Amino acid sequence: MAQSQWFGGKAEGWERAPYWLDGAIPLAWVLDDPGLKAKVKRHIDFIVANQRPDGWFSPYPADANAKTYDLWSILLANKVLVQYHEATSDAKVLEAVMKNLKAMQQAMDRTPLFNWGKFRWFEGLIPVFYAYEKTREPWLFDLARKLRQQGFDYQSFYGGQDITLPTARRGKWTYEKHVVNTGMALKAYALSWRLTRDAAERAFPAKMIEILDRYHGQATGMFSGDECLSGKNSVQGTELCSVVESMFSLEHLVSLTGDATFGDRLERIAFNALPATFSPDMWTHQYDQQVNQVQCTINKDQMWSTNGPESNLFGLEPNFGCCTSNLHQGWPKFVAHLWMQTEGEGIAAVSYAPSTAGFSVGGTPVVATTETDYPFRETVKLTIVSGKAVRFPLMLRVPAWAQGATVRIAGGDEALKPGSFHRIEREWNGAVELTLRFPMKVKTSQRYNDAVAVERGPLVYSLKIGEAWTRVNADKPFRELPHGDFEVRPTTPWNYGLIVDEAKPETSISFSEQPVGERPFSTEGAGVVAKAKGKRLPNWKLNYGWADDVPAGTQTSSEPVEDITLIPYGCTRLRVTEFPRI
Description:
Layout: H1 16-31, H2 34-49, H3 72-88, H4 91-110, H5 115-119, H6 125-135, H7 139-150, H8 154-157, H9 179-185, H10 188-196, H11 199-216, E1 238-239, H12 240-257, H13 260-276, E2 288-289, H14 322-326, H15 330-336, E3 339-341, E4 347-349, E5 355-361, E6 364-372, E7 379-398, E8 406-409, E9 412-415, E10 420-437, E11 442-446, E12 452-456, E13 459-463, E14 467-472, E15 485-490, E16 496-499, E17 510-513, E18 528-536, E19 542-543, E20 546-547, E21 562-568
């Protein structure tokens, strides 16, 4: 990374460095970390200072080879630069973006978008719209239309049959079913709707998610993709880059549409899929995570759609380095979107986690604070502090699963409608406290091969499996601890079927609250533990170095009934999440 052409070196001059900045900028400003801010500033200043007179950034070829340079990295770099401008108001950064967008508009007439740029065209709309809001230059709309016209037509593709089919194991790699392209594309038509005002485009993200759920959905709210969309099988896995990009897309979708269901999906991914793909200390990560993941080894027998034998190791750069460059955008962008401001100067609680956010409402400073152990607890305490009396609406996202939700304010309880934003419009003066209660009831869902998954609130629950970590690849560069590579193997049985009354799962599964640890998404830090009944299935074994496919249909077993422990999916590294039915 330090030797990237973006930063003056001679190494790769494409996506890695902009990816790193894409996460480092929100991380630095969310943490208000002076050292990280200075590091980011040094790199941004270099990029801007080395912009060529023709508007191109220095890694872009200055000769005929420009026709072979995929514009994806330029789209990404401009997205990064407008993030930095939003954080700092550095005028020279916006000027650099404008010069580059003008160069790009002209170049796209000579060389239309191709490869990654063609399939990620909508990422370019983010800096274009930002620049328009700051400058009101009309030619920017022409560039936005050109991006949309030259980009891949996901709407047509999702109306066809190919999207419904899993990519074959060790099968054909395609851009249109690439899982990271898919995660990014969730927001594509909500963004272009700002340009076209076509109601079908605004409605398309929900349709796209419904299709993905139906044909490729996983219990975590993600879709499979190892590296291309690969069906609903619980062992096919999904790439870490797709997790963080899907979250960013959902944050945009809430912002652009005000639809609370996108916030539900955002939390489901953030509290399950995201933490599960890291070691608890976040020094190592996976390229692919599996919903049923009972060992993580260097596995030459693996049956990914296109990925390699190290794809679900926990390590520095398993399989490919894009996730190493990109993983750190997940948490800081989530934090940055916990609260939003509405067009009418109201404020909205979009997701719930410990946080403090400052706003200006009609010139009055307002500070919103969240205190909670959610998603491990049902209650959320909000405090709204205004410098003087000011009237504005407070919008509270109420999860669709939260039947019986209430808000207490001024000593009285008010019922909340699940799956909506609840509006409280009043005069705010001084400190006003509100307490939200989101009742969490256990439910089950039917998964691949008639398997059963357990959910409670925003959390999915998985079998707790003992772990043995073994260091590997110690001779590879940069693998000195703590960022080494590790295989993980089970030390306790994993091949259980679940005994559950699916009509009344609360009679079969009990939950108990535990202290939330310093690392809440770890086996020992889990804030909730569930107890259930299960039986071993001796014929359910490893296959291809993985847990074999869940045996289809209801199973019988002569093994004794055992007490089994379930913990939140995000607290596991090894797990069974989609259980055979007993």
